[in-house]
Amino acid sequence: RPVRCRDPIGDVATIEYVLGDITEQEVDVIVNAANSSLLGGGGVDGAIHRKGGPEILAACRELRAGHYGGGLKTGQAVATTAGRLRARWVVHTVGPVWSATEDRSQLLTDCHRNALRVAAELQARTIAFPAISTGIYRWPVEDASRIARAAVQNAPVELVRFVLFDQRTYDAFARP
Ligand code: ADP
């Protein structure tokens, strides 16, 4: 049985930025900015469930019936099928809600790191992230982009693609 093995030394993930819709990405994993219920919401979450079809929600309900009875905690990540999407898996993670009084950046880092860890466990090679927490959770985009970009350094995959939905968010992420 052939064993594929990557040289762990000097093996750096490509990081790219695209303006677009994450539901259309042809990658192994797309990351969902979910909420802790795992049962759907607005923004990216709504789009993923709408385009991916009922199979994703069914898988989320199973998670809630099993190990994730209390929902998914902020910063954690868990995989499901990607249903009808072109990706193979959706990795759901819950971003922190922005706070002006409390520094929650470690939780935003955790989202990215845990999503990458789950992707690596699935032997995924390519992964797409949205701008987690910058929508309904109101995190300022410049700050979120700095945290997200730092969090995917040394990612255990070949390609990390940030998929940004509007020009302002794209500019924040893609700036040199
Ligand atoms: P959160 O609750 O973590 O803030 P949102 O889904 O509300 O998550 O927003 C996160 C980011 O994803 C925002 O920048 C939003 O504009 C963007 N977004 C919304 N829909 C899509 C989509 N289909 N593809 C990529 N990004 C999207």
Rg over CA atoms? 15 Å
- Strand percentage, roughly? 15-25%
Categorize the overall geometry: globular
Q: How would you classify the helix and strand content by structural class? A: alpha/beta
Widest sheet, order of strands: 1-6-5-2-4-3
Attribute tags:
176 residues; alpha/beta; binds adenosine-5'-diphosphate
Describe what you observe in this structure.
The chain is built from 5 helices and 6 strands, in the order ββααββαβαβα. The protein has helices at 43-52, 54-65, 105-121, 141-151, 167-174, and strands at residues 14-19, 29-34, 77-81, 89-94, 126-129, 159-164. A 6-stranded mixed beta sheet has the order 1-6-5-2-4-3, sandwiched between helices. The protein binds adenosine-5'-diphosphate. Adenosine-5'-diphosphate binds next to helix 1.
Summarize it.
Helix content is 33%, strand content 19%. By secondary structure, the chain is of the alpha/beta class. Strands 1-6-5-2-4-3 form a 6-stranded mixed beta sheet, with helices on both faces.
Any chance you could write out the topology, listing elements then pairs?
Blueprint: E1 14-19, E2 29-34, H1 43-52, H2 54-65, E3 77-81, E4 89-94, H3 105-121, E5 126-129, H4 141-151, E6 159-164, H5 167-174
Parallel strand pairs: 1-6, 2-4, 2-5, 5-6
Antiparallel strand pairs: 3-4
The structure holds adenosine-5'-diphosphate.
